[in-house]
């Protein structure tokens, strides 16, 4: 979406004209090491401006960093627009369009549920999109699991994300995971409507119920429950300075500052501090298993194991109901598919169908993939 | 539609289930442990024997010395073989590793971590550099790749890779660290492994161009405060970076340890934001856009934010703070082969995204008392730094080895208590409290934490349990 609101794009001719007359202006906007060196670093750390031909321990060719170098060309407006998919909180870049909760549910059931689970509940490591009412669960953000039996904070879209534009942008650019940038603007509006619905959210006092139709105008009225849940404030002309100020105080982010000569050398732990061990084996499901031995690698198994390949690549969607994929062992479901001929079943799998990416996202040759399909079909007879 | 109550119940079940999953790992891993144990005890008995009196078999001499080896008497490979060299086959265990618990559903949105227990010096070889992607490792044809710079600049720009490399280059050694390094251990130790406890980072020599050098001719407008960096891979990873940092030391890099970036590192180009959260060093970079307001990308709001006990989260938390670890010994390469009285080097890494390491202290009692260790080798800004301490090992001694680093920005690593009391245990990211290895009586090394029990006050503040 092309706007001149916050990201001014200047066409080729205008840019060329400007470049002739802007030398003085550009000098003031030029990266000035000396200027920034006077300010505290924005991250609370130190900077190493070029001085006496060096930055920190590194020598530099100062002439290389003091003059303008130019290669490349000006992009065309069309090129810019093609890649300009970002959407800012004020709506810059948000396209026109509309979609209903009902349509969103349809898209969700065919393209999203296999990973994000029923009603966005997550599963198999994939992120949850909702855990229930966003306004109520927002209150859990003060939960700290300092005791083994306490509940943690719920950090999903509805309870945690500060801006709804992030969701639209992210779905449009990066979802569905195996086939990104494949949804229409209307489909994304519908999915956003559905996700607002399962988070039991409201827009402008109106519940996003099953009948709700979302469009650009209504979208811009979304108020996220946790919009004020973040620090420091990064918006507006003072944003960067707010950050600089925030990180100048170690207390804000759990850091400790000390003069080296005054650092603690004895009695540096609280008397209450005890040795805490790993519970059980902890996390130890490592691949390959830990080993520091020097030996020859084991000969790799040459035989292809369809059952193992199924477990590794397919089971996450095909082993349980509700993932949108036909379940292994469901004789009726698979008979329907095989009735159309095995070639059709192979082809659907190899090229992907509905929510299933090509070969289920597995890195298998066609021959191996077909033997996995055979394995599933045989298990479903 | 499910009711809220049901969903909450399910959530609780989820949490309980994941705890059970962790518990059940116990039994699954026992066979591996046993194999390790057998291998280690075998090695131990051999060294123990070698150190004491000679046995009959040893009096006969070591056949590895007395008899010619095959590789000493027969031709090796011609130089025409392996035109791109690979490590010895015997080094196959020195490799990146992954675990399912660190996968967001599948291994295309996941991380494989660096075997820092085997690292030497301050450079990670390109094949071992930790690998994190959000939509899989993209394989980009460099001839077809473009970099576009737009927004609040007087002259927008599009570059081919060949044109980009015409800009004056700079070469710097910097670590890249995922801010979730150690992030699974806020509530207690979980990994009996250096590779997994601290290996979400690597260090390399990078070659590229300062973005400020490209901007000189493009004319950055004064109202430009933020830069969006976006990748060209399927995840279109985007992050907002303040112009302050862009004009300081941010780079676009194409070279890594003297060769092209590996695909896992963003070939042909990635952003390099020295010292800051690794996620900001966007890989497969295709677009830089300048604006007066920040973008609120998915990875800087839903993730990479630090939730504190008061319910507020730190956003735009940039630098990886001063940190260190003991790398030798480690749970992977322990001291079971040491004899009483052996003089052994304790070695480690220290690093800070806020500046240069100025010193490292070592503790043998879990951070109660410290002694000064020595820095060694090159000491560079925002770079791994080696440190060392010589120790005379007493057979049967129990030690709690803890290291603590300082940097020239004035920071020192906090204790676990100090850090938790400020930011709680739900932060996920930016954990830099001191780390402890327990050396057991038999020389085995176990990951532990030295920490107090906590309780929560009415106002949400965390305090040490029972402390007035």
- Backbone structural class of chain A: mainly alpha
**Which overall shape of chain B is indicated by the principal axes computed on the Cα atoms?**
globular
**Which CATH C-level class of one domain in chain A is it?**
Mainly Alpha
CATH topology of one domain in chain A: Cytochrome Bc1 Complex, Chain D, domain 2
| Overall radius of gyration of chain A | 28 Å
Strand order of the largest sheet of chain A: 1-2
Number of helical regions of chain A? 18
Q: What is the CATH superfamily of one domain in chain A?
A: Cytochrome c-like domain
Low-confidence stretches of chain B: 12-35, 40-51
CATH topology heading of one domain in chain B: Sulfite Oxidase, Chain A, domain 2
Q: Strand tally of chain A, please?
A: 10
Major beta sheet of chain A, specifics? 2 strands, antiparallel
Q: In angstroms, what separates the terminal alpha carbons of chain B?
A: 48 Å
Helicity level of chain A? 25-40%
Number-wise, the strands of chain B total 27
Name the CATH architecture of one domain in chain B: Alpha-Beta Complex
Give unreliable regions of chain A as ranges.
1-37
What does this structure look like?
By secondary structure, chain A is mainly α. Among the domains of chain A are: 98-219, Cytochrome c-like domain (Cytochrome Bc1 Complex, Chain D, domain 2), CATH 1.10.760; 306-379, Cytochrome c-like domain (Cytochrome Bc1 Complex, Chain D, domain 2). Chain A is 36% helix and 6% strand. Chain A contains 18 helices and 10 strands. Chain A has helices spanning 12-21, 23-29, 33-38, 62-66, 77-83, 101-111, 113-116, 134-137, 157-160, 165-174, 185-198, 216-219, 239-246, 306-313, 315-318, 331-338, 342-351, 366-379, and strands at 54-55, 58-59, 98-100, 202-203, 206-207, 213-215, 230-231, 256-257, 274-276, 286-287. Chain A has a two-stranded antiparallel sheet with strand order 1-2. The model of chain A is unreliable at 1-37 (pLDDT under 50). With 468 residues, chain B is of the alpha+beta class. Among the domains of chain B are: 126-304, Sulfite Oxidase, Chain A, domain 2, CATH 3.90.420.10; 323-464, Immunoglobulin-like (Sandwich). Chain B is built from 10 helices and 27 strands. In chain B, the strands form 7 sheets. Chain B has a 5-stranded mixed sheet. In chain B, strands 6, 7, 10, 11 and 12 form a 5-stranded antiparallel sheet that branches. Chain B has a 5-stranded antiparallel sheet with strand order 19-18-22-24-25, with no helix packed on it. The radius of gyration of chain B is 25 Å and the shape is globular. At the A-B interface, α1, α2, α5, α10 and β7 of A face α1, α2, β1, β4 and β5 of B.
